[in-house]
Amino acid sequence: MTQSIDLEELAFVAAVMERAHRLLVAEEKKLPPRTADGDEGPGSPHQTLLGAGELSRGADDAVRRIALAIGYACAGLHAHALRATNSAHISPRSVPGGTDRMARPLTSGTIEALKLVRQVSDFFGEGLRESIDKALAARTATWPPADWTNYEEERAKSAATAVSATHTAAIPTAAIPTAAIPTAATPTAATPPAVSSCRVVSGSPATDQ
Q1: Cα atoms found within 13 Å of the Cα of residue 45, Cβ hemisphere only
Q2: Stretch 30-46: mean pLDDT
Q3: Is the peptide bond between 187 and the residue preceding it cis, with omega within 30 degrees of 0?
Q4: Which residues, in sequence order, are CB contacts of 88 under 8 Å at separation 6+?
Q5: Would you tell me the crossing angle of helices 7-30 and 108-119 to the nearest 10 degrees?
Q6: Phi, psi torsion values for 110, nearest 5 degrees
Q7: Which has more pLDDT, 6 or 208?
Q8: For the residues of 4-60, what is the DSSP string, one character each?
Q9: d(CA 59, CA 92)
Q10: Average pLDDT for the chain
């Protein structure tokens, strides 16, 4: 069965993300250039500048990935368009992660941009909505960590816990007979729901190889 692509959805999300990108670029330009004041801690002018840049570049990258999918689809290169669409659904890089570096309160333009991204967060998934809510509610910047030693220790503990949980979950699965494992869900596991449920907007998709 040929998968379809919802061009209207892609175009809408691209337009929203581009509007957010323009807002973030405008806010970044308002910030003073880096100064050699030695203040590199969370929320410092330098870290705020870095965070603003991460936000604007992340939004721009999302627009480009979506536009690539639309371009392939309009060119009739359906297989390429599907791969590009899968990539477009990946959450924007450093959005809202860049805010971890930034001084509070966030500027009105930055808040408006994040709220725009939040409106289309279901397109990206991966907990993006929750991450934006957390960023908007944060009262202080949190990056870079004040104590790197403690940070690395906490990361090591988290990694060890994740490995242990994965190992524990895998043990009972290995004991289940193969015949008892449902196979109907296997083909759909690799297909993002947003892609498989799309509908073709402009004609039938081409079957490029």
Answers
A1: 11
A2: 81
A3: no
A4: 10, 13, 62, 65, 66, 68, 69
A5: 170
A6: -65, -45
A7: 6
A8: ---HHHHHHHHHHHHHHHHHHHHHHHHSPPP--S---STTSHHHHHHHHHHHHHHHH
A9: 6
A10: 82
Mean pLDDT lowest among 48-52, 72-76, 123-127: 123-127
Can you list the alpha helix ranges (DSSP code H) found in 125-147? 128-137
Q: Which two tokens stand for residue 61?
A: 């990258």
| Reported pTM | 0.72
Residue 59 burial (C-beta neighbours within 10 Å; 0-12, 13-18, 19+)? buried
Provide the 10 A C-beta neighbour count for residue 191: 13
Rounded mean pLDDT of 168-193? Answer: 45
